[in-house]
From TrEMBL:
This is ROK family protein. Signal peptide: none annotated. PANTHER family: N-ACETYLMANNOSAMINE KINASE, ROK (REPRESSOR, ORF, KINASE) FAMILY. Belongs to the ROK (NagC/XylR) family.
Amino acid sequence: MHMDLVAALDIGGTKIAGALVDGRGRILLRAHRPTPAREDGDTVMRAVEAVLGELTSGELWGRVTAVGIGSAGPVDASAGTVSPVNVPGWRGYPLVERVRAVTGGLPVELVGDGVAMTAAEHWQGAARGHDNALCMVVSTGVGGGLVLGGKLHPGPTGNAGHIGHISVDLDGDPCPCGGRGCVERMASGPNIARRAVENGWLPGPDGDTSAAAVASAARAGDPVAVASFERAAQALAAGIAATATLVEIDIAVIGGGVAKAGDLLFTPLRRALENYATLSFVRRLTVTPAVTGTDAGLVGAAAAALGGAAANGAVGLRSVVGG
Ligand SMILES: [Zn+2]
């Protein structure tokens, strides 16, 4: 029997998803549970165990060599702990140890969800073939991750590439992270909607004040809605330009619900980038939508597991991708 699969966990504030994934990134088995995000830590863990139980009980489990976890952050990969902002029952929670205990002592690789999405886009998506990339998720928050020198760069704790909390407005609004003028404070979906409402945008008869509703209004020509997307695009462009200038990326990939606004976001973003990415070595930077979609977290967790296994001398992501 081939030992050729990894188990992947994608842990978010609303859903815990699990899968068995092969060396080509194909998902062979899935399981999921809602995240009991308001419950105590052990109750949340029981939902993770229920997902893992569905994966370990099947006959494919014997082929699994490692477990990859992509979790809402912050995570601490060096300690094996997670403290997701939206799951208050988990603070410094020893997730890696708990997962190892129910998966027969397999190696467990933990990364933040932004890093997982980046691994997915580098393996299967828009950053494939790029050795230096920034990948971002723009939705209720703004997350991200880096590929540098052809390799995923999670950083010591698994949080590198956290572009949502780079300040792009020195005296800007306080951010829940404790900083000021963060990219997320201007570019996340809730903040796009908030700014539109503050500047006088009125929702339609259904009362929907989501970023998607603002996007619809912008498409219909509402100038306040358009301006809110332009401001978000400007913040993203400044953050992307800073990243490119620091570490020389040649592509920025943007996924998440806000990226679904398409040209409403990408056109002003590319325009704004011309104002911020000005040095010769960043001028050719391209910005493109993500392609891996809703499975990005699972595929990225699988990629992290395969990458971790490579570091331990077992089957490697590069050889898997190459073959
Ligand atoms: Zn912040």
